[in-house]
Every structure is written in structure tokens, then in C-alpha cells.
Design goal:
The complex is a heterodimer of chains A (about 260) and B (about 375). With about 260 residues, chain A is α/β, with parallel strands linked by helices. Helix content of chain A is about 30%, strand content about 25%. Chain A folds into 2 domains: about 210 residues, HUPs (Rossmann fold, 3-Layer(aba) Sandwich), CATH 3.40.50; about 30 residues, no CATH class. Chain B is an alpha+beta fold and about 375 residues long. Chain B has 3 domains: about 110 residues, Acyl-CoA dehydrogenase/oxidase, N-terminal domain (Butyryl-Coa Dehydrogenase, subunit A, domain 1), CATH 1.10.540.10; about 110 residues, Butyryl-CoA Dehydrogenase, subunit A, domain 2; about 150 residues, Butyryl-CoA Dehydrogenase, subunit A, domain 3 (Up-down Bundle), CATH 1.20.140.10. Chain B has 12 helices and 10 strands. In chain B, helix 9 packs antiparallel against helix 11. Chain B is globular. Classes of the chains: A alpha/beta (about 260), B alpha+beta (about 375).
Chain lengths: ~260, ~375
């Protein structure tokens, strides 16, 4: 079974919000120095799902990432968890790619890798949380996709997929090849073994540019108009009353005035 | 000269740090309260390769060398000292004795299961009457055909209550002592005559098991002798050289954690209407901590790299063990001062570190023994 996993390197979601700066003129987020980027957590779930499928059914897992040179670390983490090969698409032309452009590049990269049975992505990336790339990618490749996925079973050439819905999940049958966007409910990503880490460190990651992949340049579909930190203002109003009961009654009255209840 | 780390060491550091933050930090209070590391955590760490950092893959290790081992212990130094003690005693002195002095067959038999964490290792040198003066051990080894018979008592033996494999040092010739009179033996736990006493109650290091080990007509096959009969003292001292460097690495990690907590606290804690970080008295303590940590850290790396090049490091190991252990004590003391009353309360990671750090100046050679070794080197 040939599996392709798409991963994105993101700013560590544990970074305190207060440490971010926004350059409004350049419309860019300036991450704090000294906090290394990390693998998008949902992508780690996709990696884990791929490794589990490989353990059950055999096969080969190729990891693809579009990003800067630092994204090599994200690929190496996937290798250390049990993936087999890595491809980094590093091209300054795509530094600020939107979801459509990203899907377009990833589609070209996937075609360059060769045959595949399954493509796994994280359901969304924790930096912009747009959740657009997986479906865009499936559309460009002309294969079915399911998101968000909480469980995967393989039976012959068909996948049985648990898809999360509002108050539970539904089970879908999907023919392969297909693309699944994995959610955190699917699994708990493993800690890589230290031996795996040492091997991943020594492994070579292929690096290609857009030109190497023969990507047709496509324009942005999304224009970022303004990037800013919203000002949150809060005010405190003390609710008084002689007794706790009276305070509660006054609070309820006030909340009703504000149409909160 | 290039001082940057190879990529594998950088990735190793990142992974161990993730494991500390994600897995071990949330367990710190439990380890302290229950005075034990949960079995499943030890098993998980074994499966991930935490018990074989420095050893080559052919002997079940992960091939990170002494430098990789020290970087890992530095990261692990930021969590419960029980973890660095478990791994340090197992890897740095027990398994290392076998790696240094064992034959290929002995390494296959004994080192591989240790490096894979299938067995926990314990190093038995110290005795009630032989601490700093290790050459005066009274445990005896008498030959009887193909077997050696060990008799004596070992004290404060780290990991003894959970160990499966012991490296026991015994005197085959008390007259000759350090000069050919001490031999190292691999003694599996199940060997009749070996028993482990009640675990010690300690001031700190909760979760790290130490206990006396009794050897009562304990019959060990002659094939379990590590190296030559009589060469044990050199094996022990060489293992302890490396052990001191990795212990220093753990001390650096502990001091760095104290500094990180102190910086965080100094920026958030307000007194007189301003963060206490704005007071020069606090700033200077932070600056002194940072300075000493940096000095110790780079010396650890330098000595570890020397070990990986196969050089003897007895002198440097004494220097870094002395400096890093005393530095960590100063750092923890400053962290207590910066945190004030909060650090004096039970349950504070700083209160715990304050008790845990004190042993650094005592075990694996007291500060005084290190000074003795350093002076000996200077005056020889």
C-alpha cells in the first residue's frame, strides 16, 4: 500500500499569544524568536494513521511538505515515526501561497512521486485553520476525499472511514485511491523511537523547486486585505444586592436586559 | 573549529525535550508523591531507546555516543531527578562498565538487554566503610574452580530494587586494593546469594530507588568477570569518569530549568507595582545563573566529545563534575531566593530541586574527592 502524507510545519501552538507580533504593513505574523516551529498537530495524526496502516498492511509512506528549509525538520519527524521517504518543496515563489496554490503544488509533487493508494492530510493547519488544502488537493487529483476522519480501516481496495459529524460519526466506504483528512480523534501520535530519530537524521530528504516539478503557476484565489490583532475590550459591572438571593436575581435581570438569557 | 552539533544530536535533543515536556513533566508530582516512577513509563522509555544512548547499535544502543547521551541527560535534567538517576546509574556506570571491560560475548549477553532496557542495571561499588575511599571495599571474591564466591554488603545502590543486572565490585586481594586487587563481576539478580534490602528513605531524589545489596556466598561463574581479574578498579574509575560528565550534563539541565522558571517568575511576579525582574538584585542573580550554566554546558560538551574520540578524561571529568554540581546548587539556591516563599512550599518544583540538587555534590565522588583528583593532576 503506497501512502502519501502531506505535512505542514507551523508555529508551535503552545507559543503564548502575547508573544506574537503582527506587522500590519507587511501583513505578516512575526513569530517570537527562540521557539522552534513544529509539525502541525493534525498532520502528526495523519502520520500516525499512515504508520499504523503500514504496520497492518505493509507498504511505503512518502511525506511531502511545502515550506521553507526548516520544514525539513517536520519531514524528519515523520521519518523518525516510521515514514520511508521525504520530499520538501522549497521555493520562495510559494512562501505566501494560499490554499489553492498550495494544493496545486502538492498535486504536482504527488504526481511526481508516482502511484499511490491513499493520501493522508491533517484536517486543517493550526496556523490559519482554513481546512481548504485537503479537499482542493483531492479535487485537483480527481479522487474522492473525506474530512474530518476519526478512523480508517482497509478492506481490499476499499476504505471504511469514520467521519466525524456534529453528534457522532458516520461510516463511509470509499474506493482507493482516496484522500482522507485526519482529525485528532483518530489516534495519539507516537513518540518516535530514538533509533528512529538517529536514522531520520541521517536520511536524505529530496528538495525540489516548483520548476523541478513543472508546476503551472496559478494565481492566488484569496487576497489578504488586512492582518491585525483585534482589540478586545472588557468592562466589569458589579451586581449588588443585600442578600445572595437578591444579587442572583439582579444578575438574572441584568443578563436578560442584555439578552444573554 | 566547528562547534555546531550534528543533525542527529539536534533532533535527539528536540525529541527528548518533547518527551520531557509532554510525558514526564506531568508526572513529576506523582513521582514525588508515590516515590516511584510508574512501571509503564519505564517500559515506554525502554521501548523508545532511553536506556542505550551512548552504545553502538550492534550492542542494542542508539549510537548517540557520549555527546548524544550528555545532551539527552541535559534535557532530562529539567524534570524529576529520579529519571536522570535511573538512566545515569543504569547507563553511565553499570552498562558502561560492561561496555568498557566486557568481551564481545559478554556484551552480547549482558549489554544488549541493558541497552534495550529489557533489564535495568545497577552499579555496586559503595559500601558502608568504603565511600570516597572506594579502593578499601571489603566485599570479597574468592575463587573456587570455575566459580567466584562473593561475600559482603553494598550500600546506597541506585536502581537495586528494580535492577535485573548488577555489576558488583569485589576485592579478590585486599592487600593489593586499587592496584590489581579489585575485580568487576556481572551478577544477575536471580543469582542465589544476592539479595536487596529495604529501599532507603532519602532527603530528596524521590522516585529514585536506592537500597543495600547483600552478597552471601553468592556464586558467580568465572565467565562473568569483566576484563581481567584485578582490573576492576580501573574499570570502575573509567566508568565513573564518563558518569561524572553525564552527571554534570544533568546538573546543567536542572540549573537551566531553574533559570527558565526564575525568568518566567521574575517577569510575572509584581511587587511594589512592578515586575520583580525590574529590580537589579533579581537581574544579577539571573545573569549569574546564566553565566555559570553556559560555562558548564560547553565544558560538558567538550569533555563528552573527547570521550567519543577515545581520549582519557579523568582530569576534565573531575573539573566538570565539581563545577557543574556546585553550580547547580548555587542556581537552585538563587531560584529559591527569586521565588521567595512560593519556592519554600511543598509541591513547588524548586523546593524539590533544592533537595535533589544537594546530592550532586556528594555522589559519584564528592566535591572534595574531585578537588583531590584535580590537585593530584596539577602536582604530579
Amino acid at each position: 500500500m503506497n501512502i502519501i502524507v502531506c505535512v505542514k510545519q507551523v508555529q508551535d501552538p503552545e507559543t503564548p499569544a502575547s508573544q506574537f507580533r503582527v506587522d500590519e504593513a507587511a501583513k505578516k505574523v512575526i513569530p517570537p524568536p527562540g521557539i522552534p516551529p513544529t509539525v502541525n498537530q493534525y498532520d502528526a495524526n495523519a502520520i500516525e494513521a499512515a504508520v499504523q496502516l503500514k504496520e497492518q498492511h505493509g507498504g511505503r509512506i512518502t511525506v511531502i511538505s511545502l515550506g521553507k528549509d526548516t520544514a525539513r525538520d517536520a519531514i524528519k519527524q515523520a521519518l523518525s515515526m516510521g515514514c520511508d521517504a521525504g520530499l520538501l518543496i522549497d521555493d520562495p515563489a510559494f512562501e505566501d501561497a494560499d490554499a489553492y496554490q498550495t494544493a496545486n503544488v502538492l498535486a504536482a509533487a504527488i504526481k511526481s512521486v508516482g502511484d499511490y493508494d491513499l493520501i493522508l492530510c491533517g484536517r486543517q493547519a493550526s496556523d490559519w485553520d482554513q481546512a481548504q488544502v485537503p479537499q482542493g488537493l483531492a479535487e485537483l487529483l480527481g479522487i474522492p476525499s473525506v474530512t474530518p476522519v476519526a478512523g480508517i480501516e482497509v478492506t481490499g481496495t476499499t476504505l471504511r472511514v469514520k467521519r466525524l459529524i456534529e453528534d457522532g460519526y458516520e461510516v463511509l466506504e470509499v474506493p482507493m485511491p482516496a484522500l482522507l483528512a485526519v482529525s485528532n480523534e483518530a489516534n495519539q501520535p507516537r513518540y518516535p523511537t530514538l533509533k528512529g530519530i538517529m536514522a531520520a537524521a541521517r536520511a536524505k530528504v529530496d528538495v525540489k523547486s516548483a520548476a523541478d516539478l513543472g508546476v503551472n503557476a496559478v494565481g492566488r484565489k484569496v487576497q489578504l486585505l488586512r492582518l491585525y490583532v483585534p482589540k478586545v475590550e472588557s468592562q466589569i459591572e458589579w451586581i449588588t444586592g443585600e442578600t445572595p438571593e437578591e444579587q442572583a436575581a439582579n444578575l438574572a435581570r441584568r443578563l436578560r436586559e442584555e439578552r444573554v438569557i | 573549529m566547528d562547534f555546531s552539533f550534528p543533525e542527529e544530536i539536534q533532533l535527539l535533543r528536540r525529541s527528548v525535550r518533547d518527551y520531557v515536556q509532554g510525558r514526564l513533566r506531568p508526572l513529576e508530582e506523582q513521582i514525588e508523591r508515590e516515590d516511584r516512577i510508574p512501571d509503564e513509563v519505564i517500559r515506554e522509555m525502554a521501548g523508545l531507546g532511553f536506556f542505550g544512548f551512548p552504545f553502538p547499535e550492534q550492542y542494542g544502543g542508539i549510537g548517540a555516543g557520549e555527546l548524544g547521551y550528555c545532551v539527552a541527560l541535559e534535557e532530562l535534567g529539567a524534570t524529576s531527578s529520579a529519571i536522570t538517576n535511573l538512566i545515569g546509574a543504569h547507563t553511565g556506570i553499570c552498562a558502561m562498565s560492561i561496555y568498557l571491560a566486557g568481551s564481545h560475548e559478554q556484551k552480547q549477553q549482558w549489554l544488549v538487554p541493558l541497552a534495550k532496557g529489557e533489564r535495568i542495571g545497577s552499579f555496586g561499588l559503595t559500601e558502608p566503610e568504603a565511600g570516597s575511599d572506594a579502593a578499601s571495599i571489603r566485599t570479597t571474591a574468592k575463587r573456587d574452580g570455575d566459580v567466584w564466591i562473593l561475600n559482603g554488603q553494598k550500600q546506597w545502590i541506585t536502581n537495586a530494587p528494580i535492577a535485573g543486572t548488577f555489576v558488583i565490585y569485589a576485592a579478590n586481594d585486599r592487600e593489593r586494593g586499587a592496584r590489581g586487587g579489585i575485580t568487576a563481576f556481572v551478577v544477575p539478580r536471580e543469582t542465589p546469594g544476592l539479595s536487596v534490602g529495604k529501599p532507603d528513605e532519602k532527603m530528596g531524589l524521590r522516585g529514585s530507588y536506592t537500597a543495600p545489596v547483600y552478597l552471601d556466598d553468592c556464586r558467580v561463574p568465572a565467565t562473568n568477570v569483566l576484563g581481567q581479574v584485578g582490573s576492576g578498579f580501573i574499570t570502575a574509575m573509567t566508568a565513573l569518569d564518563g558518569g561524572r560528565v553525564s552527571l554534570a550534563a544533568g546538573a546543567v539541565g536542572m540549573a537551566q530549568h531553574m533559570l527558565d522558571l526564575s525568568v518566567q517568575h521574575a517577569k510575572s511576579r509584581k511587587q511594589f507595582g512592578v515586575p520583580i525582574a525590574s529590580f537589579q538584585a533579581i537581574q544579577w542573580m539571573l545573569a549569574d545563573m546564566e553565566t555559570e550554566i553556559q560555562v558548564a554546558r560547553y565544558m560538558v560538551y567538550q569533555v563528552a566529545a573527547k570521550i567519543d574520540r577515545g581520549e582519557r578524561v579523568s582530569h576534565e571529568a573531575a573539573v566538570i563534575k565539581l563545577f557543574a554540581s556546585e553550580m547547580a546548587n548555587r542556581a537552585v539556591d538563587k531560584a529559591v531566593q527569586i521565588h521567595g516563599g512560593q519556592a519554600y512550599m511543598k509541591g513547588s518544583p524548586i523546593e524539590r530541586a533544592y533537595r535533589d540538587a544537594r546530592i550532586l555534590r556528594i555522589y559519584e565522588g564528592t566535591s572534595e574527592v574531585q578537588r583531590l583528583l584535580i590537585a593530584e593532576h596539577l602536582l604530579r
